Amino acid sequence: MSRILTVLSAQVAPVPWDPPATLDKFEDHVRVARRAFPDVDLMVFPELYLTAVDGFTSGGSADWKRRVAEEIPGPLTDRVAKIAARAKRWIVAGSINERRGKKIHNTAIAFSPDGEIAAVYRKLFPWRPFEDADPGAEPAPVFEIPGKGAVGMMICYDGWFPEVARGLALQGAELIAQPTATTTPDREEEVVLARANAIVNQVFVFNANMVSTFGPGRSVGVDPEGRVLFEAGAGEELLVEVVDMDRVAEIRRRGTRGVSRPWQHFLDGPRDVVLRPYRARRTT
To answer: Strand 4-11 vs strand 42-44: parallel, antiparallel, or unpaired?
Structure first.
């Protein structure tokens, strides 16, 4: 029997520079989505959506990240957990600015239908020099949706580094949820990279991009052969896709387009040789 997972990618805009109002909007989106799409299992929201950042409007401040940063767990995650519990759905609530000691991280959080924190991920590759968040120090995590499959998390610019997606696949991820907040012209490249990460690891990739006053949107979902399942426009959209998680194993076994088996060949191949330059590289 197939393991069917229904995923909603929320391409949404914050209430600029107003986190409480954006949190109310997030709650309303979840409630509406739950009613309109009752079979949805997993909802994925954009990067930094709940921080209410909109760089193309006046507002905010130079120290905005520190002003809105919260600890995990904390009041924000407590409320999002209750929203997930009321909806009885898995939610990747995008990312927030997390205060952790003296550091401020860009942190994605997954919540279970029971209102528990299922996974926490601190972005490994902040977008330098524009993003001054502190990088995380732990590999991107994978969490299990019982009876459905394994979901990994990475954030936006992480997708430019193939090691992050590969690390998730090595941990068993069958679908990668990638909250994103890209308003720049390189969104075209990010769509290509979402497809590339899906192709080389033979996994699903769901990249939910935030909408701002200016920006391309273009949230995208990709299957394990690199086919685009959907690509959004520039405005707010709730995009629903039904995926068969067993397709990951089937494509890896049969090969992309019935021929190429990059995942199996990576596992069977000279991985020690391939990875040797990483171990040998010296930091200057």
So the answer is: parallel
At 151, is the secondary structure helix, strand, or coil?
Answer: strand
The CA-based angle 48-53-57, given to 5 degrees, is 155
Q: Which two tokens stand for residue 283?
A: 């930091």
Q: Which pLDDT score, from 0 to 100, does residue 59 have?
A: 78
Whether residue 73 is preceded by a cis peptide bond, meaning omega within 30 degrees of 0, is yes
Cα separation, 164 vs 108, whole angstroms: 14
d(CA 208, CA 176): 11
pLDDT at 282: 63
Contact 28, 22 (CB under 8 A): no
Answer whether 0.90 is exceeded by the pTM: yes
Residue 204 CB neighbours (<10 A): 26
Residue 1's pLDDT is: 64
For β-strands 149-153 and 175-180, DSSP reports them as parallel
Cα dihedral 162, 164, 169, 173 sign: negative
Alpha-carbon gap, residue 189 to 88, rounded angstroms: 35
Domain boundaries, the chain: 4-280
CA–CA gap between residue 208 and residue 83 (Å, rounded): 19
Please, is 209 exposed, middle or buried when counting C-beta atoms within 10 Å of its C-beta (0-12, 13-18, 19+)? buried
Q: Are 57 and 14 in contact (CB under 8 A)?
A: no
Strands 103-111 and 228-231: unpaired
Q: Which tokens go with 196?
A: 């590339």
Taking 70 as the pLDDT cut, the residues of the chain under it are: 1, 282-284
- Where does 4-280 sit in CATH, by number? 3.60.110.10
